[in-house]
Amino acid sequence: MPRDDRPLPVIVDNQPIGLLLEAGQGFRFVAADPAFRLLDGSRFFRLEQVQRAAGAMKRALAERGPGGRAACRAC
């Protein structure tokens, strides 16, 4: 990935969720979508790594019911 000072958008399922900012030898994620605030400040070496982490977080959030509680699969 070419290095310049411009932030790189992070998009998951066609939704912009944050930005990657250059930080040392890697990148720091800045969440724009509050659903991804747990990843805010995380460091990654490649754009693909943050997309993978955000995709996993999105899938985990989708499994949760309204109000942030885990969905009951036995009910």
Outline of this structure?
By secondary structure, this protein is of the alpha+beta class. Helices cover 21% and strands 29% of the residues.
- Gap from first CA to last CA: 47 Å
Unreliable parts: 71-75
The strands making up the biggest β-sheet line up spatially as: 1-2-3-4
Average of pLDDT? 83
The main pleated sheet reads as: 4 strands, antiparallel
- Based on DSSP secondary structure assignment, what is the total number of beta strands? 4
- General shape: elongated
Oligomer: single chain
Sheet/helix structural class:
alpha+beta
| Beta-strand fraction estimate | 25-35%
**Fraction of helical residues:** 10-25%
Number of helices: 1
Order of helices and strands: EEEEH
Describe the model.
- This protein is α+β, with helices and mostly antiparallel strands.
- The chain contains one helix and four strands, in the order E-E-E-E-H.
- The chain has one helix at about 45-60, and strands spanning about 10, 15-25, 25-30, 45.
- The chain has a four-stranded antiparallel sheet with strand order 1-2-3-4, with helices on one face.
- The longest helix is centred in the C-terminal third of the chain and has 16 residues, at about 45-60.
- The N and C termini lie far apart (about 45 Å).
